[in-house]
């Protein structure tokens, strides 16, 4: 029996646009709620959210068989990626990639020897169903999906070189950090930034790699999909909760009744 088939990897390879949501609440309960909405993928954020190995594991457990989990570690540390893969994550998004050399290092981090340096600990790991998948070691490399995040001017300059590295399964453009690096701190929607994001998506696609991006602007998300982005996150759990709770209270205070919650039981 081989490692589980990575349906997300197959979909973006085939150019099927996968719609996702960023999860930063670091909670399995809210992750399960978001998965119930039917998103193709959910990003478990270990870079800017208060996640650690136990919280990531709990979220991976509730997402099993539903929305595909993508895990972003804080950095591209090899030991950190090893732990995330052993938890059972098959798709990782590594932030702040700026060179082909970094890309090659990340490819080696997600692969078992001789193609890589991933440690052999599957017998203890959730990834192999605790050693109940007999062919896991022989088949795991093919089912890991490595996504690399470019989010600086240096990263943009190296897109073609990064895409040329064998084993890179997709390249994600990070508008927020890119905006800051370009001198537009807190303004990812600035026209100059958006121009670079759009050009980056086209360049990634021209290299034959799937492109990804995050925006809470639905019109912009559709624009990215039209340009050929294969994995598009259209918001975050934090953003949705903040907007919904603020609107809910404001509607009450101004005398406007909010719409009834479907099936609500108290």
Largest sheet: 8 strands, parallel, barrel
Structural class: alpha/beta
Strand content: 15-25%
- The whole-number mean of residue pLDDT values reads 95
Radius of gyration: 19 Å
Strand order of the largest sheet: 1-2-3-4-5-6-7-8
State the shape.
Answer: globular
Assembly state (oligomeric): single chain
Record field, number of beta strands? 8
Can you count the helices? 12
Topology as a string of helices (H) and strands (E): HEHEHEHEHHEHHEHHEHEH
Report how far the terminal alpha carbons are from each other.
46 Å
The level of helicity is 40-55%
- Uncertain runs are 261-266
EC number: 4.1.2.52
Pfam family, one: HpcH_HpaI
Keywords: Lyase, Metal-binding
Protein name: 4-hydroxy-2-oxoheptanedioate aldolase
Helix and strand layout, with pairings?
Blueprint: H1 7-13, E1 18-23, H2 28-35, E2 41-45, H3 53-63, E3 68-72, H4 78-86, E4 91-94, H5 100-109, H6 136-143, E5 145-150, H7 153-157, H8 159-163, E6 170-173, H9 175-181, H10 191-206, E7 211-214, H11 218-227, E8 231-236, H12 237-253
Parallel strand pairs: 1-2, 1-8, 2-3, 3-4, 4-5, 5-6, 6-7, 7-8
Describe the fold and architecture.
This protein has helices spanning about 5-15, 30-35, 55-65, 80-85, 100-110, 135-145, 155, 160-165, 175-180, 190-205, 220-225, 235-255, and strands at about 20-25, 40-45, 70, 90-95, 145-150, 170-175, 210-215, 230-235. It is α/β, with parallel strands linked by helices and about 270 residues long. An eight-stranded parallel barrel has the order 1-2-3-4-5-6-7-8, surrounded by eight helices. Helix 2 packs parallel to helix 3. The radius of gyration is 19 Å and the shape is globular. Belongs to the HpcH/HpaI aldolase family.
